[in-house]
Amino acid sequence: MTTAMRWQTISLVRRLMLRKTRRQVLALCLMCIFLFASVAPSWAATVKRPAITAGGAVTYCQNTGEIIYAKNKNKRFAPYSTTKMMTALLAVQNLPLDQEVTVSERAVQEGEATMELQAGEVVTVKDLVYGTLILSGNDAAWALAEAVSGNVNKFVKLMNKTAKNIGCENTHFSNPNGMDEKDHYSTAYDMMLITKLALSNETIRTAAGTVKYKMDATNLSDKRVMKTHVPLIDKKDSGFYAGKTGYWDDNNCSIVLGYEENGLQLCVVVLDATKDEREKDVKKITEYTTKKVEGVKVVGKDAEEGKVRIKQGAKTRLKTYTAEVGYAYLPKEASESLIGTKIVMFNDVTAPVKAGTVVGKYEIYVGEDLVNQVDLVIKEDVKKGWFTSYLGISNRAAVIIGVVLMLLLIARIWIGVESAKRKRRKMMERQRRIQEMAMQELEAERSRKERDWRF
User: What's the distance, CA 195 to chain centroid?
Assistant: First the structure.
């Protein structure tokens, strides 16, 4: 082999090796891109813990039984008027709602936020509870305390005993309304326990979630109209259904809230906040919590789920569809086999009805507990039906039945006509035979006469 040929061979080998190296590098790059793409979603799904200005905060998921967000959860702060959640709860637990309470001179001396009660005014327990939670009435809370225990000192002892019984280890109350005192304190964790218990009571849940309440006139006052001081619960689609604020000044505020959205149930507490940042902090930690808690998708949006009966409608049965996605949130380490569902149709849906009308509920259970409800809606308008709709027969069915009855009538008439024709033919045939027989008899008789043949 000549020197030129050897150099050509070496050059060819180098080019082949270079091509092979390039392919390997390209393959390695593609592999890296693939791995990065597969890992990237998990990085993107990481939820960043929010920074808040409040001194203490807790979000508790009632579905899973876990604290999802916490900041200084056991640090003591003044709860201010969120104290009234405990006061209202003890009042509801110990007094009939329709019991009348005569407001004392001492109660009306409580200043700041009030119901503007007057000494000697007779007010029901229910109205005092609403005044305590909606107006944050210090006078109303004091009146309830006296009504429950006879005097405030005994009531405060009951408050502290109850707090201890439900697991509050860093809470001490000195008054029933949250007025700032040295030995009046709680923590975000303890206030979560109190709020969770209070909102489990239907009366408290309703009162603390009421945006506007009209109170009848009393012996000393005209009618009152109460409007909530709690931000968020009066905002559509916020998810917050009830709560109580606390306020001493713009730099010393608090709030406790109940949240429920698509089956997710939270208790949110913020203490030692400023007036300007309190609502922002609530939104931050709630948004964080809703992203952190993973739910099980039980049913999708627009899923067909049974039919509903429409009374007096042009159509008497319509398909129903889920209005939104339905989730279930399981306790930690619980099995998805605990999830069950039930379809409940309303039995009072009467035409006319519009598309989008809620006609039932898709209920989601974890074990025996109802944890979520998804609206079932119809997707078409239904007009008032004919008189047959009162019998549960739709217009279309009425037409079909009418056509069938008409065909049956026509068939019956045709059968009758054909039967009459057959009878007439038989009669004519019989008459013809009789005539033939008569003619034959006459012919025979004539023949006998002609032959003079007799029987």
Answer: 21
